Amino acid sequence: MGSLADPGELDSVAPPPSFDEFQRQTSLMTSCTLLWKELTDHFTSLEQDILKKSEALKAKIQTLDSETKASLKVLEHRENSMNVSLSIALQKVVENKKAAILALDEGVEQPEVDDSTGLLLKLKNFCVKMDSRSFWNFLTVMKKDLDSLRVEIPKALGECVDPPRFVLEAISEVFPEDKREGKNERNNDLGWACVLMLESLIPVMMDPVLGNERKLVTPSVKDKANEIAEIWKKSLDERGGIENVKTPDVHTFLQHLVTFGVVKDEDFDLYRKLVVGSAWRKQMPKLAISLGLGDKMPEMIEELISRGQQVDAVHFTYEVGLADKFPPVPLLKAFLKDAKKAAAAILEDPNNSGRAAHFAAKKEQSAIRSVLKCIEEYKLEAEFPPDNLKKQLEQLEKPKNEKKRPAAVPANKRTRASNGGPMPPAKAGRSTNAYVSSFPVAPAFVRSPPHTQYPAAVPAYASPPAIYGSRSPPYYSPEAAPYPGTPVNYSPYGGYCNGMAPAYQQAYYR
Length: 510
Fold this sequence. Notes:
This is FRIGIDA-like protein. Helix 6 (163-171) packs antiparallel against helix 7, helix 8 (219-234) runs antiparallel to helix 9 (247-260) and helix 12 (297-306) packs antiparallel against helix 13 (310-320). It contains 16 helices and two strands. The protein is an all-alpha fold.
């Protein structure tokens, strides 16, 4: 048996903790456990985030490496192609130079412009000689052949020794400043010719190896193009600011920037304002992209919508593929609604009282035609059926068509007698005291029956007094008693005075 514990040792053993102390220690251990778990989760999350960021960074580095290699490969290709491109361009210049010298020496006769072949030969003749002034003078009077010019001018410009310089010299008469003397409103707008030449120059300037990735333009010509752009910008104040610049001038300026590649980042705000101000031009959405305004297109579209130019906004939307963000059908319906309100305002305007209905109809017709064209261009028939719009357009055009419809020739046509007699009777509605028959109107192709066939109750009308002059009354009976004095003798025009009643035209009674 073991020995019993010493009473002194029993006194030194600590007493068991109280219930409160035990509860406190348990709570402390629970808090530590929860804190440990929270810290563990936090650091685990940090570790996962670091791993994800590290993987993303590795992916970006790999992408950057791939892009760098691709860029270096492109640069190497461009560098290697430089000699080939310059060789081809130089050979072309030499050939064009020889052709120009030969043309000047032989004095080539100007071809007749009777078809597309003759037009091309005429244009080439100017280009071979680098005669930009004659080219321009010829072009500005050929607007009626715009479609043919659009096809033939790029071919002709390829015959120039220096096509970019040729174009700048050709349009210098009106761009960047109009230097013409005696200009008038009729011949003032030559922006179409400037834009046509600048657009036609683009394919001519393309690199023979890289295509539109590189333009073949000499540094001196590019500096000149940049100088011209700066002159045009400085002239904005003289023109009254951006709001007062004419759209053809804006179009020429923007096309000039794109053609010669002299776009500047610091001028993006100016380009945006110019594009929005001339947004109705068909080429503006594409020009905006070429100017580098692709990132600003959403806000430009919103600005167009706020200005009531929903149709222009639709064109811009489809150019950049934002039809999901800016659905076209609600925009087109809003455009038609605004046009209807504008037409109603025209009708209410006292200043337009004379032709208010005409102006209001024109407004609605123009809006409907624009929407119909938009529906057709972007294949929106399923979302916006055009049948109702076409019917509305027909209804709006109906009064105009009826007005233009020629009046039918009456059965008894008024012609002057060969013996120099008086004019035949005028229309009944033109005389305030003229008699208008109460009988049903006979069609123009049916001759009225003789007077003897009318009921006896119909009274006979006497001869008119001399106040009619050369006019005969619309209804005359030879049996009637004459007025006192000398009776008026009527020549037998078309049934008058021959016992036949005149056949009145239905239009007289409308």
